[in-house]
Specification:
The structure is a homodimer. Chain A has about 375 residues and is α/β, with parallel strands linked by helices. Chain A contains eleven helices and 14 strands. In chain A, a hairpin with a 2-residue loop joins strand 11 and strand 12 (about 290-295). The longest helix of chain A is centred in the last third of the chain and has 19 residues, at about 345-365. Mean pLDDT of chain A is about 95; it is low at about 1-20.
Chain lengths: ~375, ~375
């Protein structure tokens, strides 16, 4: 293991579509020990994915995209990347062990299948699938190839407060988790979005997309392996000019272990909000509760990443901003090397997506 | 109208079961102009009801209760009250225009019917009913007598931040309301509760009880006259020693106007919480959003009553503690005098209760 001497700027939260946090580096590999390449830069999340891997010590090899402008912007930010002239070049590169990708959502599964069939692991932006058929196809290829299909569920994996909440729960700070509520407003920034963003067949619906983050957090915090969907809704409430946009969604679930989950996802972040969204998580347990203010402490601080812990000992404000090394990325690299699943089990990855897709299906049918 | 010269202490939030806020007095009547009496002191909310009426200028006449200890405590706090030797004495008192009451919940409707049939208006603690049959019976008597059956939905009527939120919405500060979420944790304080508190037939279930507050807020903030219940749950998650206690509940609704509502109600306020509950309201609109921290600003201030308003102009923290005269009480007194319904329409009172009862029924049947 390498040491942790390299420090990068603690925080770099960009407003709007791109969210590419930078954490404290804790490198789990030596330079050149673990190579990854990047392909399909359709969503700005690719910067967060790349930052996370680099800070954990991975070595960036190739980048591929069909759009020269996006490619140039990526190369300016990551000058070490070599430009691949085709996706196939990356698939053939022996030193590329993992391919990170943020393609248009309905293309992500097919790209992942090609990556895995080329003997590499895959790290896609969420949502990982837009249909249950894609999920089934990917499951089969994972089974055949034993490759990893990892998902950038950034709202927990790349958020200090969200990660800290998981640590506190694991330490027993609030007892057994009874309920998780996620409020996930996002800024629409309508004029900056590509066409696919407003085409439901391509983005998959608001519950499939933003919802998958929220379900993943529920499964993690409440230790859930399966759940029943009680209610789901996806609507266009105030954007008639973009008829296929769902600007509002909600899901209620009850887990097999009895834990409750509710989330509201939306594109209604007001113009005057200091960050792209005032995301919150409320977790109640038998012995206490946690609130995460994930990006914003409204009217007080932005950016912010705070945990409020209340239990028998009292109320505590824990400032998490810039305090995390985002351990997921190092764990993922080590999983790729050691063929383990410490970062996140494959069944957890799939279950979060499956429940989101089922919720979307329920919402679409009502 | 009387002037507003009398000032009472701004805040007196007691922890635990009793919550009896004191506001800035704005008296709408002269002394002796509007007499009320108090009967059945089973819940501590009666102090909040009495405070609200007194500060709006009403004159306290009689008090009745079968428990000498409770009666003595009330008389110590309100020495102007004359002790009635029977409830009938109050019903016969010509100068009593309104009877305020906080009886065991399943008795509230019958008491109200007797009050109205005696030609007086009634002001009961919530929940106003524990069954739909009681609601139907009361509706019929209201129809016959034209008396008022008012309900102390304190979590809006007697909370500065909650009231302020309604004013901001009416001013258009967040555009059209799309969703209301209420998180309503309460401290169980198990050892201090009477037996009826743990007897479902008497208290009616958690959605009937605490839920009715939350539904009332939804109807008000989102301008809703009716709604469909999507999902409701009421459970005992961690109090096996009190099998009829429901310590957790949740409701999802969609209003006829499309607005969404979700509430979680529970008895899991941790020991170390500075107040009896960290109640929150989140309201999103087409042009902004509001958060109410109704009793507590966790890890920062307690008691507290704050509104956080975000819209195109930016993010704003509005401290409401001690800033309200709680206008509901004065409006109610004037409604009783003038036979108007400015404080709250009777259909709104009934609809909030009806939807809570229907949610409880749905939860009980699943």
């Amino acid at each position: 293991m390498a040491d942790n001497s390299s420090q990068t700027p603690a925080v770099n939260i960009k407003d709007g579509a791109s969210y590419a946090p930078m954490g404290q580096s804790e490198k789990v590999v030596e330079p050149e020990q673990f190579g990854f390449s990047v392909a399909f830069l359709d969503h700005g999340h690719i910067h967060g994915q790349t930052n996370g891997l680099l800070q954990a010590g991975a070595t960036l090899r190739y980048v591929y995209d069909s759009d020269p402008k996006r490619l140039a912007a990526f190369c300016e930010k990551y000058p070490q990347a070599m430009v691949a002239t085709s996706f196939e070049q990356i698939l053939a590169d022996q030193s590329t062990k993992l391919v990170a990708s943020a393609a248009i959502p309905n293309l992500r599964a097919d790209i992942g299948i090609r990556v895995m069939q080329a003997g590499k692991d895959y790290f896609t932006d969420k949502a990982p699938f837009t249909t249950l058929e894609q999920l089934a196809a990917v499951k089969a290829v994972v089974e055949q190839t034993s490759q990893i299909y990892a998902v950038y569920y950034a709202e927990r994996l790349h958020n200090e407060a969200a990660w800290k909440a998981g640590e506190l729960i694991a330490q027993g700070a609030i007892g057994r988790v009874l309920q998780v509520i996620n409020l996930a407003p996002h800024r629409l920034a309508k004029d900056t979005r590509p066409d696919w963003f407003f085409d439901k067949q391509q983005y998959g619906g608001i519950l499939t997309d933003i919802g998958s983050h929220q379900v993943e957090q529920f499964l993690t915090y409440a230790g859930v392996s399966n759940a029943q969907i009680n209610f789901a809704r996806a609507s266009n409430m105030n954007n008639a000019d973009k008829p296929e946009l769902e600007d509002f969604g909600e899901i209620s679930m009850t887990a097999d272990n009895g834990a409750s989950f509710y989330t509201r996802v939306d594109w209604f972040t007001p113009q005057g909000q200091a960050t792209w969204g005032d995301g919150r998580t409320f977790i109640i347990g038998t012995a206490g509760n946690i609130e995460c203010r994930k990006y914003n402490d409204v009217a007080r601080q932005a950016p912010a990443s705070k945990v409020f812990l209340t239990n028998a000992e009292g109320e505590q404000e824990i400032d998490c901003l810039g305090q995390s090394s985002f351990p997921y990325f190092g764990q993922l690299i080590l999983d790729c090397i050691n063929r383990t699943d410490n970062a996140m089990t494959q069944s957890h990855v799939f279950k979060a997506a499956e429940l989101s897709l089922l919720a979307q299906q329920m919402a679409d049918n009502t």
